[in-house]
Specification:
Layout (H helix, E strand, L loop, with lengths): L1 H4 L12 H4 L11 H11 L7 H10 L4 E5 L6 H15 L6 E6 L2 H14 L8 E5 L2 E3 L6 E5 H11 L5 E6 L7 H12 L10 E6 L4 H7 L5 E3 L9 E4 L7 H15 L4 E5 L3 H14 L11 E5 L20 E5 L3 H4 L5 E6 L2 E8 L4 E8 L11 E4 L14 H10 L15 H13 L11 H8 L4 H13 L2 H12 L11 H8 L7 H14 L4 H6 L4 H20 L12 H15 L3 E4 L6 E3 L5 E4 L4 H4 L9 E8 L5 E7 L2 H7 L2 H5 L5 H34 L1
Parallel strand pairs: 1-7, 1-8, 2-5, 2-6, 3-5, 6-7, 9-16, 10-12, 10-13, 11-12, 13-16, 19-21
Antiparallel strand pairs: 3-4, 14-15, 17-18, 17-20, 18-19, 20-21
Helix pairs in contact: 4-5, 7-8, 7-13, 8-13, 10-11, 13-14, 16-17, 16-22, 17-19, 17-21, 24-26
């Protein structure tokens, strides 16, 4: 079988005339000269030696599952998908297409760009990608790279695997919740009985191979030979620099002055530092005075989008590439031309506290970056021990599993299961939101919530807006909260600060986001208008697209809509009610009037974010007593982001009574329970008075 899959690529080398005669079997066009150049690079990758073995196992695996294990940098993420596409092509497209999952959207985008280039195909046609707010695929797409959470949502919506011939779960060692759930769902579905004869390829590094072999029942395993090249030579600097960005720039300039061959990779922990480093280097490299063109400085982070393509492009003859990035580069690209790494030894890690439902980013000591095995010299700005722990929100993923496998009593059949405390917290949150029935399966409301590509609390607020007649405003807010942050930086001057303050709304950050969006639309989505106010034009465009998708989804499932009424007093109250209906889990109280907020669900104190409109006003009034917040950031100065004032009466009215009863002991809980009793007594007296008046009226008649 394997010998039938490849014709051209198995030849020892093309002759000068071959490029004019050979035709790409995927689009029927002649191969370009660049294809042959990249083909030589592909053949030199360690994974190439395992090609025939992989194709044979993919064809003959009794269970339909193949496990691929290889060291980082061996080429498995770019080559395995192409071989799967050849496998599907050999079957005459009768068994569906190839879907490749990635744990990070940037990795899916970057790999799609690279693989399309290597296959000599057009991105968006035969090769495509699907990431949040962007679907670059078409009817002719045979090979699709996809963020694993999006694929999980697709499977939850269709209750199946669709017309996929091969499903590749890449970077399984990253242990994302979505990847683990996908593996659990596929294993429980008894692969031999799946429609379409689906093949599953699980790609990992050797560290997770034994666990995956045990989980999948010892499937055929392809081990990529280890590269026998030289190991990197680490050079540590004992003194910790006070300015990481300046130290990294200085290290790059020293390498350039020495004219050491090879490209440079710089690791910094945050996107802000990446941007500052690139800006500084771009100014300094031109004054090096070396012969030849100056180095080309390239930033690489999730906000770059398709600009990641520049990493693969050829530079002017002799020009060195300096790629400035963070740990996501380990899964987004690999360049054999890189021979020097400048590593800060730090990274921005996701951290969480389950009890407070808080998430944040914290600079921690980094793990040893996976790209080092194929590099030459490593310059460390700080010696470090390898450690990186990823924390994620599981409620949305658990609701997806409940929908896909209703009646399942084992939510922990994963690889292995996450912490039981995290799963119980997720189930508790879903129960508070009325998304589960008495049997622990999704309720009717939960099924509708799972249709939305939103966090459960945001989806609940959007559904509540149907009841409170503020759907138009809540659609805008949901899109703005889900897209990338709309503000790129603090104001640079007084004029810009004044323009931005004009967009603030007196009711708080949620209404301010709606006001920003509406002003953006009224400007005609003008980029210059955004730049004058320090707004992220790309993020606002994302929000506009996502809003349209959410509106289309609501129309498809026949949910009631409402006319725009933003700015009216009634709409103000209705919007607050919709928000509280979904976000009652995220409420805080200022107990002493100083702006120190105590979280309702835990005895944790936080400040308002510096970007909160309550703090950015020129003459701020007393901080609001009760606030609803979108996120709680865990950091040195814990802060609440996207904050709006609410009234405690509204919280008592809309939150489940057992939620208030289950709050930890505090003055706030006592106050709310007392308020609930008073409101109940008042309602009882009102009903009694109405009944008495009715009886009196009957007597008079």
């Amino acid at each position: 079988m394997a010998s039938q899959l490849l014709g051209l690529e198995e030849e020892s080398g093309p002759s000068p005339g071959e490029s004019e005669l050979a035709v790409n079997p995927f689009d029927g066009l002649p191969f370009s000269s660049r294809y042959y150049k990249l083909l030589e690079q592909r053949r030199s990758l360690p994974v190439w030696a395992a090609r025939f073995i992989f194709l044979e196992q993919l064809e003959s695996s009794p269970s339909g599952v193949v496990l691929v294990s290889g060291e980082p940098g061996c080429g498995k993420s770019t080559q395995i998908p192409q071989w799967c596409a050849e496998f599907v092509l050999a079957r005459g497209f009768q068994k569906g297409w190839v879907t490749v999952t990635q744990p990070y959207p940037l990795a899916a985008l970057s790999l799609a760009l690279r693989v399309a280039d290597e296959m000599d195909l057009t991105l968006g046609h035969e090769v495509g990608y699907s990431i949040p707010q962007e679907d670059c695929t078409g009817p002719d797409t045979l090979l699709r790279f996809c963020w694993d959470r999006l694929l999980l949502q697709e499977m939850a919506s269709t209750r199946g695997t669709g017309a996929r011939g091969v499903l590749v779960l890449d970077e399984a060692q990253e242990r994302s919740v979505a990847s683990d759930l996908l593996q659990g769902l596929l294993r429980d579905a008894r692969l031999g009985n799946l429609p379409g004869d689906l093949r599953v390829v699980v790609v990992t590094d050797p560290t997770l191979k034994p666990k995956l072999q045990d989980f999948w029942g010892n499937p055929p395993t392809v081990c990529v030979p280890r590269e026998t090249g030289r190991c990197p030579t680490p050079v540590y600097r004992d003194s910790l620099p006070t300015d990481r960005v300046e130290a990294a720039c200085q290290a790059v300039l020293e390498l350039c002055q020495k004219e050491a061959p090879g490209d440079v990779l710089v690791y910094l922990p945050s996107e802000e530092e990446i941007s500052l480093c690139c800006e500084s280097l771009s100014k300094k490299v031109g004054s090096l005075g070396n012969q030849g063109p100056p180095p080309r400085v390239l930033p690489l982070h999730p906000g770059c989008g398709r600009a990641v393509q520049a990493v693969y492009e050829d530079t002017e003859a002799g020009a060195r590439k300096v790629v400035v990035t963070h740990w996501l580069a380990d899964f987004s690209f690999s360049l054999p031309s890189i021979r020097h790494v400048i590593d800060s030894g730090l990274e921005l890690q996701s951290v969480s506290e389950r009890q407070v439902r808080g998430h944040g980013l914290k600079i921690e000591i980094a793990h040893s970056h996976l790209s080092w095995p194929w590099l030459g010299v490593v310059t460390g700005l700080q010696s470090s021990d390898p450690s990186r722990i990823s924390s994620v929100e599981t409620s949305q993923q658990v609701s997806g599993r409940r929908k896909t496998t209703p009646g399942s009593r084992d939510p922990t059949s994963l690889v292995p299961s996450p912490a039981p405390e995290a799963l119980m917290q997720a189930l508790e949150d879903l129960d508070y939101l009325a998304a589960l029935d008495d049997d622990g399966d999704l309720s009717d409301l939960g099924v509708i919530l799972s249709e939305f590509p939103l966090a459960p609390e945001l989806a609940k607020a959007l559904l509540a807006s149907c009841e409170f007649d503020c759907v138009d405003e809540m659609l805008t807010l949901a899109a703005m909260l889900t897209a990338a942050p709309g503000f790129t930086r603090p104001p640079l001057c007084a004029e810009e600060a004044a323009l931005r303050r004009a967009l603030e709304h007196v009711d708080g950050d949620h209404s301010s986001l709606i006001q920003v969006y509406e002003a953006f639309i009224q400007s005609g989505a003008d980029k210059a208008w955004c730049q004058a106010r320090g707004l992220n034009w790309a993020a606002l465009c994302q929000a506009h697209k996502l809003r349209g998708e959410l509106l289309e989804l609501m129309q498809r499932i026949e949910l009631p809509l409402s006319q725009p009424a933003f700015g009216s007093e009634q709409n103000r109250r209705d919007l607050q009610k919709a928000l509280v209906s979904g976000y009652f889990l995220k409420v805080a109280r200022d107990t002493d009037g100083t702006g120190n907020y105590l979280l309702l669900t835990h005895k944790h104190v936080a400040q308002l974010s510096p970007h909160c409109c309550y703090r950015s006003r020129r003459a701020p009034a007393r901080p609001p007593l009760w606030v609803l917040y979108h996120s709680f950031s865990i950091s040195k100065d814990n802060c609440l982001s996207i904050v709006s004032e609410i009234q405690p009466q509204m919280l008592v009215e809309l939150a489940p009574p057992y939620f208030l009863s289950n709050l930890p002991p505090s003055e706030s809980r006592d106050f709310l329970n007392q308020l609930r009793e008073e409101m109940t007594d008042s309602s009882t007296r009102s009903e009694s008075s109405s009944t008495q008046e009715l009886e009196n009226a009957c007597v008079l008649q």
